[in-house]
Structures are given as C-alpha cells and as structure tokens.
Amino acid sequence: MNSTDVITSNPTRVTPQRLFIVRYTLEVPIYVIGLFLNSYVAYMFLRNDRNRFRESRLNRIITYLVGACLLWSAVSCFRYFEWLVDGGMSTTLNTIYALLAPICLVSILGLNLMLAMERFFVMRQRSDIDTKTDDSVLPNNELQATVWIWSTAVYYITVIVAIITLYISTFLHTRKILRMYRRTQPSSAKDVVQNQALFQIERKVLFYSVCFGLVVIVCYLPEILMNGCIIVRIIDPHTQGDLIEVWKCVANVFVACDSVITPLLVLFVGPKDQRHDEENL
Q: What phi and psi values does residue 234 have, to the nearest 5 degrees?
C-alpha cells in the first residue's frame, strides 16, 4: 500500500456479501423499529406535559436526543432502501446522505455529551463541504477523505471519552453521597423525609449515569476500535478485507442499536417527574 492511498474500511467501493446480508437482515429492521419507537417516544414525551419541556433543560436535551435518533433512523432507512432499488448510483442522493449522516451522528454524540454534562453539573452544583462521494461516508478526494477520517476519529474519541468521564465522575460522586446519607442520623421527622427524598434522587441519578454511559460504550466502541486499527495501520484494508468485512458488520449493527436503545432508556429509565425532583432538591 502506497503512503498516498486513502485509508478506508472498504477500498474496493463494493458492498461485500456478508455486509449486504447483515445490512438488510439486521440493520434495516433495527432502524425501522427505531423510526417508529423514536416517533412514539417523542410524541408521548411532548404530549404529556409541554410545560416540562419548556421549563426543564434536561427534558429538552432528552427530547432533542430522541429527535436526533429519529432523524438518524429515517435517513438510514431511506438510504438503504434506495440503495436496494438503484444500487446507490445517484450522485445527488449520495451527496445528501453524506451530508445528513455525519450531522445525525454528531448530533447524537453531542447531545449525549450535553446530557452527561447536565447530570454532572446538576449533582455537583444542585442547579439546573460540498464534495462527491461514492459510499456516502468518505469523500472521493484523497485529501478530503484523509482529513475526514482523522477529524471524525478524533471527534468520536474525544466526545466518547468526555461522556464516559462525566458519567464515571457522577457515579463516584453520587455513590459517595448515598453512603453519607446512610451514615447520617436524622434529628427530626422532617430530616428523615428530606434524607429519604434526597436518597431516592441520588439513587436514580446513579442509575441514569450507569445506563446512558453503558449505551455509549457498547454501541460505539466496535466502530471506534475498527477505525482506530485502520488509522494506525494495525489492520490493512487492502489485504485483510475479510476481517474488516466481519468487523464492519458487527460495528454497523451496534451503531444501529443506539437508535432503539436510547428511546427505550428515555421511556423506561428517564426522568418521570423532573419538576418534583428539583423541588425536593
């Protein structure tokens, strides 16, 4: 491989058979489920109490996160079905996908970072380029492709490390507070009620931190590791295409799962009555 070659997970620009099978038997059904699930969660979240959306920054971030997952599911479904019909030969549509795909992923990771920061500061402070592309991922221009790969890798790694660090810090701080509450001997019935309320809030935040942090790690780690190995040339995509194909299948499915897992977390794990929690604080 020459030093001027663009490092990519698919140098042949041809979709391998296994990647094609995984795409339409696993990825597409996941994105379809994500499309309906995110629509339902966004509708229910906004319908129940619109005042909470306006008053609570946390609720706004969660709603925007669900919206980003909804857009990512819709773009992925339309892209894969369009590729199935015409083989992805439309330059115009591929350019649109190339623009929307990074916007969706950057939005999802950025909003996850905002959510992690919100939980961190609430518990700490008690307050509330236009270019052609053949695969809708990498530009055809060698220099642009190289810049895109490196900038994307640095962004993903930085954001994911920041999200995980914030959640770990929140976890450690909350665990410390929980232990302090257990050791505290209340002097009155009012103190007992207040300590119990604070204990429940801290415990929920601890649970949120663990759940949302694990989703980021599990869903994006395979993709990060694969791109990292390609960038540092531990794996050569020109000679180890079979390994890259299998790895890409796994990574794509894990990334797709985020569009389903995130709304499920919001639906079953997310804050049920944020206003009540803030009043207790």
A: -70, -35
Structural domain count of the chain: 1
Map residue 88 onto helix, strand or coil: coil
For the stretch 6-55, pLDDT in tens is 444 444 455 667 778 888 888 889 999 999 999 988 888 777 666 666 66
CA-based diameter of the chain, in Å?
75
The CA distance from 106 to 100, in Å, is: 10
Which CATH number does the domain housing residue 95 bear? 1.20.1070.10
Q: In terms of residue numbers, what domain contains 241?
A: 17-273
As a whole number of angstroms, the distance between CA 147 and CA 47 comes to 43
Torsions phi, psi for 160 (to 5 deg): -65, -40
What's the token pair of residue 116?
């992690």
Q: In angstroms, rounded to a whole number, what is the distance separating the alpha carbons of residues 255 and 220?
A: 6
